[in-house]
Structure formats: structure tokens, C-alpha cells
Task: structure prediction
Amino acid sequence: MEIINGLVYVDYRDNIIVDKDNPILAFKANRDRFTNSSSQKAYAGLPQIGSIRSEDAITWNYFRSLQKKNNYKSFSELIGYNIENPEILLWTLSFTESADEFQYICGQKIRTVDGIYKGQITEADVIIKTKIHLFIIECKLGVKDQYPKHLWNCYPSSKGPELRRTIYCGIRCYSCINILDEQNLVD
Result:
């Protein structure tokens, strides 16, 4: 297990605790890499998910563990909604057969709103569909109780989505709840 400066694993899989050989992680590792900028030079070319501070590694480890155990109690308690038989996407990608079709439906819907509102558009870390709710979650490590100004930023005049904020284990989860019900993403 080689780690550079105690911060970034050479093999990103050393930073993953569950399902470390999943092709979705290989895709993420190949796409999101450190650059040769002055602050990243020691890690240039290495996958960002190999960082001990990787939000994506924490997101994968938590949500993939829930799915593998088929036990969503901790997340249900966190958000105050019952999660039963969910279809889950990580970075808009399905990692179970039960969510394969949802991946395509969701991608189609996202393309109808992507870029309409002023401000940054970001790839959702987690999308969870239940029988009656749709949760779109962006996980951010940061300072406790400090709202990050850059996250899914919509100008007040844009009538963009209302955000609900929850903090769990240093991960900030921002959920847009029921915003796509009228577009038939949930039954």
C-alpha cells in the first residue's frame, strides 16, 4: 500500500473499503485525476478518489455499503424519511441491475434542466429514488455548519431548487426532495 505524503494512495483501491474493483470506480479514477499544477504536482496523474480527503471515496464507501447490506436505516434516520427498496445512482451511474433503467431515465431528465439556471451545474454524487421520493444529494467535506457558497448555486431570481441541508460524519448532504415528482421520475 503506497501512499504519497500520507495523503494520496497510488492505487485508489487502497482507499476503498467495499467493492473496490467495481468498474464505476475505475471509470471515476480514470476520469478525475490530479493535474500538474503547483499544488498537485506530487500527485499528478493519480486518481483524486485515491486521496484520503476524497468526498467520492467516502460517498462510495458509505452508500455502496448500505446497498450491499440492503440496510438503509442509518441514512433514513439522517434524512428523516423512510428508505425502502431504493434505486440508487452514484455520479448518475447505476451499480445494480435494479437501477439500470433509472440511470437512463434520470440522465434524460437531467439533460432537460442542465444549464437552464444561472450558476454552477454539478454532477450529483447520489440520486436515490423510492416509491414516493427522489433525493438528489451532493456530498461535501467542509467546515461544520458552514454552508458552501458554490454548491448547486442558484441565484434567488432563478427560481432554482430549494435545498435541504443535513450534516453527517463531516459529509454535507444537500437534498432536493420531490422536485421532479411532477416529471414522473417517482411513481
In short: The longest strand covers residues 134-141. The chain has four helices and eight strands. The radius of gyration is 17 Å. Residues 151-187 have pLDDT under 50 and may be disordered.
